[in-house]
Design a protein that fits this description.
about 35% helix; alpha+beta; 13 strands; single chain; three-stranded antiparallel β-sheet; 11 helices; two-stranded antiparallel ribbon
Amino acid sequence: FSAAFNPPQGLPYPFCMLNTTKCYLAERVISPHALIVAEVGSLQLEFRALARHTCVDSVRTLRDRAERAAAFVRDTLPSSFSGISPARVDIVSGKFASSARTLGAPVDSYYEYLFKTWLQGGRKEPEWKEAWDVVMEGLHRDALLRPAGGGGGGGAHGKDNGQPGLSPKVSEVLLRDVYPENASGSNSNNSARMDHFACYLPAVMALSSPFAPSEEKRKQWFETAEQLTHTCWRMYERSPSHLAGEYVRVMSERWIMQGGYELRPEALEAMFFLYRGTHDEKYRDQAWSIFEAIERHSRVRRRDAAKTDRCGEGSRESGETCSRWGGPLEGTLDGIEVEVATEWGYATLKSARARAPKQADTMHSFFIAETLKYLYLIFSDDDVLPLDKYVFNTEAHPFLIWDAEDEKGGG
C-alpha cells in the first residue's frame, strides 16, 4: 500500500489495485484532483494497530505515512477556520478544493480520528488532542444553530455569534455547515440543515468530554452532545416511518426530512456513548424504538411462509415473477411494499417519510458492522468492550487502547 501515499504532499490515493502497485483517484465532478478529507483521516487507527501488533518495518512505514497525511490537513488549515475543514483537498497541490466547511460528511472521520488517535496511543501525543480541542472551539462558535433567544446562531452558553437562530418554536439544536462570509460579512448562506451523518459527532464529544481542557469545557461539550443526540432522536421520532432520512431541514418551525433510510448507525452510536456516560434509560428506550422500526420496515421476510419453493414449480404455476437470486422481484408484506431480490436480510428504504416505505434492493455492510453492534452494546453491561480499554474505529471495530507506559508506536 505504500504507493497510495506517493502524491507530492503524501496524501493517499483512495483506490489501489491489490495485485499491482497502481493507485489512482476516481474522476470527481468538482475537481479532477479532489480528495475527500475523510479519505485522508480514516487510516490512522488501523495502521497504528497493525504496526503495534506486527512490529513489521513496512507496516510501521505505512503508519507513519498515514499519520503524516492527517497531520498535513491538520497543520494546513488556516487558523481562521477554527479547525473546521473544507470537504475536499487537492491531492496534488494540497490546497483545499471547496469553500464550505463541515463537521459532517465527507470530513467526519477526520475529526473523529483526531481525538481517537490520541486516546488509542495512551494519551501521549498531545498534537492530536490539541487539534480536537480547536475543533470543539470552532464548533461552538460557528457550527451550532440554536433556537432564537436560546443561543442565537450557535454561540456557546447563550452567546450570540451574530447569525440568525431557529424559530423559538424549535427546541432542537442543529449542527450546520459553515459557508464563506459574503460581502456584508455575514454567513447568510448558512443552512438550517443537519445530516444524519453528523450524529457521529455527539458520540465523540461525549467520549472526549472527560478530557476537556477545563471543567467548564467538559460541561459544555457533554451538554452539547446531549442536545445533538436529542436532535438525532427527533429525526426518528418525527418521521412517519420512525426511521430517519438522510437529512432534515428546518424552515420556521417545520421539519422537512429528505432521503431514504440507509440503515445508518450514527444516531445509535451517539445513544450508545451517551448511555455509557449517563446510564439514562431514555437512550435504551430510543434505541429500542429504532430497532422496532427497523424490524417493521427494513427486515426482509417471505411474502408467504407456506411457500418453500419460491421459484420452483409452484411459483411458475402461480405466475410469480422470480429474480436470479431466488426471490420475488416485488410484492407486499404487511402492507409494506417490497422490491428486493432476496428473502432475508435488512433493506434500505426509498423514502423515510412514508408510513409504509418501499424497500430497496440494498443492505450496506456497515449495518452489521455498526448499526447492529451499537444496538447490541447499548443493551450490554459496561464491561462488554469497556471504553477505558477499547477505542472504536469509524466502522465500530474495537482496538485496544495502549497502556500509558507503552512507548509511542507500541512496538
